Amino acid sequence: MRLRRFGLGLAASSAMFLVGCARNAPQDTWQPKGDNAQKINKLDWMVFPLAGIVGVLVFGLIAYILFRFRDKGQALPTQSHGNPAVEIALTIVPALILSVVGVFTFKGIFELAQTNDTEMVINVTGQQWWWEYDYPAQVVNGVEITQPIITSGQLVIPTGTNVLLRETSRDVIHSYWIPALNGKKDAVPGRINLLRIQADKPGIFAGQCTEFCGLSHANMRMEAVALGPEDFAAWIANQQRNAEAPAQATLAQEGEAVFLNQCIRCHQVNGLKKADGTAAIAAPDENVYSGAAPNLTHLMSRNTFAGATFDLLTSSCRKNVWTASPEEFGSAYLKGVTTDCLNQTDLRRWLRNAPAMKPMYADPIKLARSDGKYRGMPNLGLSESDIDKLVAYLSTLK
Ligand SMILES: [Cu+2]
Question: Rounded distance, CA 68 to CA 71, Å?
Fold first, then answer.
């Protein structure tokens, strides 16, 4: 009976172990796709077997002792005390093992902390519950960024380039982690923490906020997208464009009017003009706790939304991006969200009632604070016809 239970336990844990090793797990730390992740992986391959051997020895010995000396009603053995040889050995051997592990770990920590070889800077800001990326004006691999770029959810980087992330937060502590590219780094309000990432080949790499940050912590994800040099230059060029006004007398143009009424107070769309022809400027600081909301100028150039938690692409179009070969990835990604690929279901659900999709308030009745500020995107009580218009307008934000 006891043996059978042991066997069942062993089978269950081996099954879990094998599931954990599945090759298509996008957040697998054992599949590094860049320099820094490679360094961590090398260290893992040294520490893990060592710790494994020690673990097997210790558990084996315990199992042997439990079995060999189990209570069979025998008399108490003679009691002894102290054995200098065993005690010295049990001190020196672990100390030696830990010193070896320690030397390599410290070396790894110092190598990972190095940031004086970075070739590009991106500011990364966490807030409840999404990441904002802003690219200051700079020259990257010969491509000039003249207008600062502000985007969210998906971080776009050039391949083979050491990118310096300058992380901070607008509210609580978050932690940035793209396992395929590097380890974790906390984003702390009032501080700037540095993290260097680099990707060898074009592709898309998933991550997750790894510091508990409130109600929708589990819905705070991120993706890093690595593009080859030409594709990256094309991405930069597109991001620096202002949004174009929708054509006259279209549903999208009606959507623009709804947007100006309902959305511009939180969301910036660069180039958007008010009815009187002046620039429409968002004021998220007056409307949201964190003081920020995603810039929507190029919403359809990213393929996820709301903290990279929901897809802007239908599942078949999403698959085309995720399974593209490194050679084809860039063109698949740069297509953005075309009309037939738009996941209207989730986008409409979001506009209908965002907090129902992504919990934002512990008390759903008391949505806004007494100063009128919301956490995250509120339910705006939009009509279905306004939602139709908005979807048409948002689709023009390429
Ligand atoms: Cu977070």
Answer: 9
373 alpha carbon – ligand 1 mean position (Å): 20
Query: Could you tell me the two tokens for 164?
Result: 């310096």
CA 82 – ligand 1 centroid, Å: 51
pTM for the full predicted model: 0.89
Region of residue 243 (phi > 0: left; psi between -120 and 50: alpha; otherwise: beta):
beta
Task: Report the separation in Å between the CA atom of 175 and the middle of ligand 1, taken as the mean of its atom positions.
Answer: 6
Expressed in angstroms and rounded, the spacing between residue 130 Cα and the centre of ligand 1 is 7
Ligand 1 centroid from CA 215, angstroms: 10
Q: What pLDDT was estimated at residue 372?
A: 78
Distance 8 CA to ligand 1 centre (A): 38
Return the SS3 of 311.
strand
Summarised one tens digit per residue, pLDDT across range 188-247 is 999 999 999 999 999 999 999 999 999 999 999 999 999 999 999 999 999 999 999 999
Q: How many whole angstroms from 218 Cα to the centroid of ligand 1?
A: 8
Model pLDDT for residues 318-351, shown as the tens digit of each residue:
999 999 999 999 999 999 999 999 999 999 999 9
Three-class DSSP category at 18: helix
